[in-house]
Amino acid sequence: MGTFTTLTDEAKIALDTLADRTSALVSPSLRLGVTGLSRAGKTVFITALVHNLVHGGRLPLFQAQKSGRIARAYLEEQPDDAVPRFQYEDHLKALIEERIWPDSTRAISELRLTIEYESASMWNRMFSGGRLSVDIVDYPGEWLLDLPLLGKSYAEFSRDSFELAQLESHRDLAVNWFKVSDGADANADADEMTAQRLAKSFTEYLKAGKADERALSTLPPGRFLMPGDLDGSPALTFAPLPALEKGKLRPGSLAAMMERRYEAYKTHVVKPFFREHIARLDRQIVLVDAMQAMNAGPSAVADLERALTEILSCFRPGSTNFLTGLVQRRISRILVAATKADHLHHESHDRLQAIVRRLVDRAVSRADFSGASVDVLAMAAVRTTREATVTQGKETLPVIVGTPLKGETIDGEKFDGQTETAIFPGDLPTRPDSIFELPESVSEDPAIRFVRFRPPRLEKTAEGLTLSLPHIRLDRALQFLIGDRLA
Ligand SMILES: Nc1nc2c(ncn2[C@@H]2O[C@H](COP(=O)(O)OP(=O)(O)OP(=O)(O)O)[C@@H](O)[C@H]2O)c(=O)[nH]1
Ligand SMILES: [Mg+2]
Fold first, then answer.
1. Is residue 15 part of a domain?
2. Least crowded by CB within 10 Å, which of 162, 281, 356, 412?
3. InterPro entries from the entry (predicted)?
4. Could you count the other beta carbons within 10 Å of the beta carbon of residue 67?
């Protein structure tokens, strides 16, 4: 048993789980976790999913819908009073009425969607009452990256953080943080201002890694990037210290203060999050912006792979963390989905899917996901483009047509956010491994032309009704995640 395993943690999870299951007998429910690193597309995915179900969108691969067995789907009050509600109406208004992307959401939120359906099987008709409540939980993937911290002492965390920062891909971002920590004496008396200076420069280094051009993924502690409502609290005001001496730190020293705060972070932030949220999930989708990483180059891709491995390890049993056994007992399906496939011509969708498969291969083969099925998918929760062909001389090129966001540029041309434009997005490499290689050695040119598009203008029917949001393979995702519960 690891040092951080306490009976109370397991007992609390078991109790929560039992309470969930008991109430689930009365009204069947399913907790669907939606995660991914920041900007991966969580908010857009949930909004599009709910909108398509509530408005009977086109979902041919979602069996229950296709066979006409869904009577209606509607929003209900969520079961957890202490979790912010997912602001579906605001996000939808942005997407549909203003045709802008919803704001970034930096914490956890939840929404209950209830589906009334007619079961295809006699047995289910008798027992489920034809209602399924899906509790959708949106939470930052960065928070999952904290799980390994539970197994690390402050000294180990410090050592690992400095090691990671020494990597070629990180070193130049950490220059200022190194300078500040070199000037700090771990054994000096604890001082709040020094702690704040260290935490600030450390956080700036973590943030710099997330900038667009770098697109690095694996930089815990997760709350330093996504503080939620903990911004500025002592549990978030610590940083690794270099060259810590072995053994007990001098009470009253800077190092001892940092250690105490690090432990507080684990106890008050990391553990409750896993216990109250992750341990109760039944299904999970992990969204991945593979294209952004590919655009940033091989080190970003390698970093994304590392992050995905860590994220997926949170859902598997057998490792040494304090709740995997309990988590695994519940999560039965995990979907890893590359979002934003609408940036590519459909000929490349399968290649994108192969790339995601490659990215999670190691995580899946190394881990034992017994009891849970893992699948991958290339999709777009909201399809912003349509396809066309353009003839250039004798060549016909497959292009995508959409309205680039204001300020986006291609070949020096700047877009105004109003004009529809045809773009040749380029092809993804046929060989997934090539995304890990440096450009010199890549035989196929991986350069995809990547511009952000505005959300689509929704078409109206002859009667003036607005159709639901267009998507790519959102129905496949739905079928995998909840289809069996509506059988
Ligand atoms: N074309 C296209 N763009 C998308 C899609 N989904 C997300 N995006 C883009 O990705 C951005 C981020 O999407 P969000 O849904 O806000 O991502 P998130 O994971 O909720 O991000 P945070 O709340 O910041 O963690 C959006 O502003 C869009 O520009 C999609 O299906 N198609
Ligand atoms: Mg969001």
1. no
2. 412
3. YcjX-like
4. 12
Same domain as 108, residue 46: yes
Domain shared by 282 and 259, yes or no: no
86/123 same-domain check: yes
Q: What are phi and psi of 71, to 5 degrees?
A: -75, -50
- How far does the centroid of ligand 2 lie from the alpha carbon of residue 138, in Å? 7
- 220: tokens are 């815990």
CA of 105 to the centre of ligand 2 (A): 4
Is 423 inside any structural domain?
no
Which residue of 52, 340, 384 sits with most ligand 1 atoms within 8 Å of its CB, as the best mutation to test the pocket? 340
What residue owns the CA closest to ligand 1's atom 9?
A: 41
Can you list the residues of the chain whose pLDDT is less than 50? 1-5, 318-320, 325-326, 328, 440-446
Ligand 2 centre distance from Cα of residue 85 (Å): 12
Q: DSSP alpha helices (H): ranges in 145-190?
A: 154-165, 168-171, 175-182
Compute the distance between CA of residue 326 and CA of residue 163 in angstroms, rounded to an integer: 32
Distance CA 265, CA 237 (A): 9
Q: What is the pLDDT of residue 21?
A: 59
Residue that is last in its domain, among 272, 294, 322 = 272
3-class DSSP state for residue 67? Answer: coil
Tell me which ligand sits closest to the C-alpha of residue 451. 1
DSSP 330-382: H--EEEEEE--GGGS-GGGHHHHHHHHHHHHHHHHHHS--TT-EEEEEE-BSS
Q: Is the CB of 296 under 6 A from ligand 1?
A: no
What pLDDT does 451 receive?
85
Tell me the backbone φ, ψ of residue 392, rounded to 5 degrees: -120, 105
Q: According to the model, what pLDDT value does residue 296 have?
A: 81
Confirm or reject: Cβ of 41 under 6 Å from ligand 1: yes
Structural contact between residues 19 and 444, judged by C-beta atoms closer than 8 angstroms: no
Residue 101: CB within 6 Å of ligand 1? yes
Write b or e for each residue in 68-79: b if 16 or more Cβ atoms lie within 10 A of its Cβ, otherwise e.
Answer: ebbeebeeeebe
Atom of ligand 1 nearest to the CA of 405: 29
The pLDDT, as a whole number, for residue 173 is: 92
Radius of gyration of the chain (CA): 24
The closest-lying atom of ligand 1 relative to the alpha carbon of residue 342 is: 1
What tokens does 411 get? 């070949």
* 105 C-beta closer than 6 A to ligand 1: yes
pLDDT tens for residues 144-192? 989 889 888 999 999 999 998 998 888 999 999 999 999 999 999 999 9
Residue 13 included in any domain = no
- Looking at the fold, whether 203 and 256 belong to one and the same domain comes out as yes
- For residue 343, the ligand 1 atom closest to its alpha carbon is 1
| Cα–chain center distance at 140 | 6
Domain membership of residue 56 as a residue range: 28-142+277-382+472-485
